[in-house]
Write a structure and sequence with these properties.
With 153 residues, the protein is mainly α. The chain has helices spanning 2-24, 29-48, 54-149.
Length: 153
């Protein structure tokens, strides 16, 4: 009698399960079969301890997101630090270049001023020599002409 009763309960359970899957599939037996296969597979995974409920999956996702976020934050901080260091080097090189340009400008101006003075001095001396030569030659020519005309010394 017990086995007959168990058989009736088992048969009723299969009938209720079939009706449930057919109802949830909208009366389509192929869709009901796919849902049943999925549920059996999920139940097997739960029994093997491989089940990830949505809460567990969400927790794992949050942990992964935090790890990825902290890695990203560290990477961004490292890049920002490297940019600051590069900026310091660039500013240092820029200041060195400006200093060197100013030094070269001052040296060039000094050399130009010295060259101007030397050229001016040489030009003045040449002009004085030319003036003396012209005056001397004029005096000689004047005395030569005067002596021809009888106004000589």
């Amino acid at each position: 009698m017990a086995s007959r009763r168990a058989l009736q309960i088992g048969g009723a359970t299969v009938a209720v399960g079939t009706v449930y899957y057919l109802y949830s599939a909208g009366g389509n037996p192929k869709v009901a079969e796919k849902q049943l296969e999925h549920d059996v597979s999920a139940a097997g995974a739960r029994l093997r301890g491989q089940d990830l409920s949505s809460k567990e999956a969400q927790k794992k996702g949050e942990v992964w997101a935090k790890e990825a976020g902290s890695t990203l934050d560290r990477t961004v901080d490292n890049v920002r630090g490297e940019i600051r260091e590069a900026d310091k080097v660039i500013m240092s090189k820029w200041q060195e270049a400006e200093s060197k340009a100013k030094q070269l400008e001052e040296e060039g101006a000094k050399e130009l001023k010295e060259a101007y003075k030397a050229t001016s001095k040489d030009l003045q001396q040449t002009a004085d020599n030319f003036d003396k030569t012209v005056t001397r030659k004029t005096a000689e020519a004047k005395s030569g002409i005067s002596s021809w005309l009888g106004f000589g010394k």
